[in-house]
Amino acid sequence: TVTTATPRTSELGLMLPGSASGVDDCFTAWTSKGATVIEEPHEDVFGRTFVVADPDGNLIRVSPID
To answer: Which residue among 6, 30, 55, 57 is least enclosed by CB atoms within 10 Å?
Structure first.
C-alpha cells in the first residue's frame, strides 16, 4: 500500500452496461472482497453510483452507462 501526504481527489471512472442493479451487484461483489468504501451506492445526476479505493488509495467511481 502506498501512503501519500496529499489526499487523492481524482477518480477513475468505470461505467457498467445495464441498470442500477448492476452497479449494486458490483458494489456487493467488491465489498465482499474487502474494497474500501468511500461513498455508499446512491442516486446522483448521472444515475446510481458509488466510490471505492483500491489498495494503493486510487479512487474508483462506478456508474451505469447512459
So the answer is: 6
What distance in Å separates the CA atoms of residue 59 and residue 8, rounded to the nearest whole number?
7
Q: Tell the CATH topology of 11-64.
A: 3.30.720
Long-range contacts of residues 3-10, Cβ cutoff 8 Å, at least 24 apart: 3/57, 4/57, 8/53, 8/57, 8/58, 8/59, 9/59, 10/59
Q: For 22-38, how does the pLDDT look when each residue is reduced to its tens digit (9 = 90+)? A: 999 999 999 999 999 99
| Single pTM value for the model | 0.83
Q: Dump pLDDT digits (tens) for 34-44.
A: 999 999 999 99
* Phi and psi angles of residue 64, each rounded to the nearest 5 degrees, phi first: -80, 155
Residue 2 has which C-alpha cell? 502506498
Domain borders along the chain are: 11-64
